[in-house]
Automatic annotation (TrEMBL):
Gene3D superfamilies tied to this protein: 3.40.47.10
Organism: Weissella bombi
The protein's name in its UniProt record: Hydroxymethylglutaryl-CoA synthase
InterPro entries linked to this entry: HMG_CoA_synt_C_dom, HMG_CoA_synth_N, HMG_CoA_synthase_prok, Thiolase-like
Entry GO MF terms: hydroxymethylglutaryl-CoA synthase activity
Biological processes, Gene Ontology terms: acetyl-CoA metabolic process
Coiled-coil residue windows: none
One Pfam match: HMG_CoA_synt_C
Binding sites annotated in the UniProt record for (3S)-3-hydroxy-3-methylglutaryl-CoA: 144, 243, 276
Domain Hydroxymethylglutaryl-coenzyme A synthase C-terminal, first and last residues per copy: 264-358
Domain Hydroxymethylglutaryl-coenzyme A synthase N-terminal intervals: 4-166
Family in the record: Belongs to the thiolase-like superfamily. HMG-CoA synthase family.
Length: 388
């Protein structure tokens, strides 16, 4: 039987960030409220020259070969920070990345969950067409507003995944369990550029959904926590995933509890320093786990919990392949963190308020953005993308 799964993974986030201690001091909060209570140490700052399209392109470009670009017959773009109510972000990617023109290009939305649905559609498509490949990107900018309770859980970036037969990283197993309910824990009206959220309510719904789909998964699959080497979580902030993990740790032996906690710490190394990616948060967690764990090996089963407010949750598993670290772009996050520039809180606030918006023509200063793909402005109500 042909194995279908994630062959390559890549990540991009801009080269500016703020320190959570500085943000806490500026907001009159105790730093430990952010460092421990939320579980964040740094937060990516998104300049006006980057949007979800450029971040997705910068992420995907680093991992795709010329043969990949020819073999891709579908691009699935998951985001809740879309730039157009009609045109798919995937169409822009197809052109920017030089991907086969005979490919489907679709954008998907369901809060933070859409990346998982896109990944499952890719798996099912390649199962039927094993000689073809699907590019899945999850790209978002988390915006709650300055001086809001959600400000500490902002951030942004993009995760790109290539789904194929005989993958290098992991097989996507056919064991998904999911749950949907109409819940008003988080939403963004069409007229707003920042999210509306009931933070405590949303955190409770997240845990409720995890416990529900985890229980159903065990019932349907016959598996238990003993079958998992690690559990990866959607991490809008890393303390949220820790709370969910603690809900199921009593099901494991003391030895496995310690092992699962160690793997969780590996999975949140990057999220602590990037912040919230919305659709990409679970997959940055997976990326971090694969890159930072010292004990994962071929055949290990990793549990994946995806959650999107509004609300939808899903639990499924991956089985690691022989060369799972080889499917990651080498040194990618280490280079990002080494080259990032810290900005002051006033500088961050100015950047936050300077995003491209409205219908008027505008030219952006791109000389300080070293990324390959950048947003250079708006002309005739059309976003202008350039390649450095």
């Amino acid at each position: 039987m042909t194995v279908i799964g994630i062959d390559k993974m890549s990540f991009f986030s801009p080269q500016q960030y703020i320190d959570m201690v500085e943000l806490a001091n500026a907001r009159g909060e105790e730093p430990d409220k952010y460092l421990i209570g939320i579980g964040q140490t740094q937060q990516a700052v998104i300049p006006p020259t980057q949007d979800v399209v450029t971040m997705a392109a910068n992420a995907a470009d680093e991992m795709l070969t010329a043969s990949d670009r020819k073999a891709i017959t579908m691009i699935l773009f998951a985001t809740e920070s879309g730039i157009d109510n009609s045109k798919s972000g995937a169409v822009y990617l197809q052109r920017l990345l030089g991907i086969n023109p005979y490919a489907r290009t679709i954008e998907m939305k369901q809060a933070c969950y859409a990346g998982t649905f896109a990944l499952m559609q890719a798996r099912d498509y390649v199962t039927l067409h094993p000689t073809e490949k699907v590019l899945v990107v999850a790209s978002d900018i988390a915006r709650y507003g300055l001086h809001t309770s959600g400000e500490v859980t902002q951030g942004g970036g993009a995760v790109a995944m290539l789904v194929s037969a005989d993958p290098a990283i992991a097989e996507i197993n056919q064991d998904n369990q999911y749950l949907s309910r109409d819940v008003m824990d988080f939403w963004r009206p069409i007229y707003a550029d920042t999210a509306r959220v009931d933070g405590k309510f949303s955190a409770n719904i997240y845990q409720d959904f995890f416990k529900a789909v985890w229980t159903r998964y065990k019932q349907k699959s016959g598996r238990s926590i003993k079958d998992f080497k690690a559990l990866a979580f959607h991490l809008p902030f890393t303390k949220m995933g820790l709370k969910a993990l603690r809900d199921v740790l009593p099901e494991a032996s003391e030895e496995q509890q310690a092992a699962l906690m160690a793997e969780f710490e590996a999975s949140r190394v990057y999220s602590k320093r990037i912040g919230n990616l919305y659709t990409g948060s679970l997959y940055l967690s997976l990326y971090s786990l694969l890159a930072n764990s010292t004990t994962l090996k071929l055949g290990d089963r990793v549990g994946m919990f995806s959650y999107g407010s509004g609300a939808e949750g899903e639990f499924y598993s991956l089985t690691l392949r022989p060369h799972f670290r080889g499917g990651l772009v080498s040194g990618q996050l280490e280079e990002l963190f080494a080259s990032r520039q810290q900005v002051t809180i006033p500088e961050y606030e100015a950047i936050f308020n300077n995003q491209l918006s409205g219908a008027a023509d505008r030219e952006l200063d791109t000389q300080h953005d070293d990324a390959k793909f950048v947003l250079s402005g708006l002309e005739n109500e059309q976003r202008q993308y350039i390649c450095h």
